[in-house]
Automatic annotation (TrEMBL):
Response regulatory domain location: 10-126
Organism in which the protein naturally occurs: Streptomyces venetus
SMART domains cross-referenced by the UniProt entry: HTH_LUXR (SM00421), REC (SM00448)
Recorded superkingdom: Bacteria
Identification of the protein by name: Response regulator transcription factor
Length: 221
């Protein structure tokens, strides 16, 4: 049950069909924590409205005149990095789905099931969680398996066995001196391995290395 002191998410809705906007607005405005505060008929208008209106979330159709929802998503996330974006579309299309993710959208909702999924997707976006319909999950898995099949290694395989050993020990809280003793290598070599790990994985410190080690299954959380 949503309480009265729950912050209200201010929504910008963009679709070139007024009838669709009206239907989507009915779905959203009946929720106490969601409120449509601006409506646009195309992507360019959505960007103009976002500049002058306080909004937390943009819900964008893909096929709109002047500027598509995907183009608008790219512009909006650059203009307002804190603004969350959802794509609401009739297209169950893998290419559109991946383009939407690249453009900065955190969710992809089909209009055919908007009455079931849209509210949950809005709330997920505001929690910084992705929302994907079942077909999109299938597409992601298929895309991943295709990349593996074509020789593109998953992230867990970019490390050498020695680097994995060092990563595991770092994540378990061992000092460089202890790691050197356990692996029979010099402290200088340990430092080099740690620097390589941070560089290869694009991480900054021990905490991030530990989180990565948990995700990779090297240590228990």
């Amino acid at each position: 049950m949503t309480t009265t002191d729950t912050p209200v998410t201010r929504i910008l809705l963009a679709d070139d069909h007024a009838l669709v906007r009206r239907g989507v607005r009915l779905i959203l405005d009946r929720e106490p924590d969601l409120q449509v505060v601006a409506e646009a008929g195309d992507g360019a208008e959505a960007i103009a409205l976002a500049r002058g209106t306080e909004v937390d979330l943009a819900v964008l159709d893909i096929a709109m005149p002047r500027m598509t929802g995907i183009q608008a998503a790219r512009e909006l996330t650059a203009l307002k990095p804190d603004l969350r974006v959802l794509i609401l579309t009739m297209h169950d299309n893998e290419q559109y789905f991946f383009q939407s993710l690249k453009a900065g959208a955190s969710g992809y909702v089909l209009k055919s099931v908007a009455d079931r999924d849209l509210v949950a997707a809005c709330r997920a976006a505001m929690r910084d969680e992705p929302f994907l319909y079942p077909g999109a999950v299938t597409a992601l898995i298929r895309n991943y398996l295709d990349r593996v099949r074509h020789g593109e290694e998953p992230p867990e395989q970019v490390l050498t066995p020695r680097e994995e050993e060092v990563l595991k020990l770092v994540a378990e809280g061992h000092s460089s001196k202890e790691i050197a003793e356990l692996l029979f290598i010099s402290i200088k070599t340990v430092h080099r391995h740690r620097a390589n790990l941070l560089h290869k994985l694009g991480l900054r410190d021990r905490l991030e290395l530990t989180r990565y080690a948990i995700r990779a299954g090297l240590i228990e959380p």
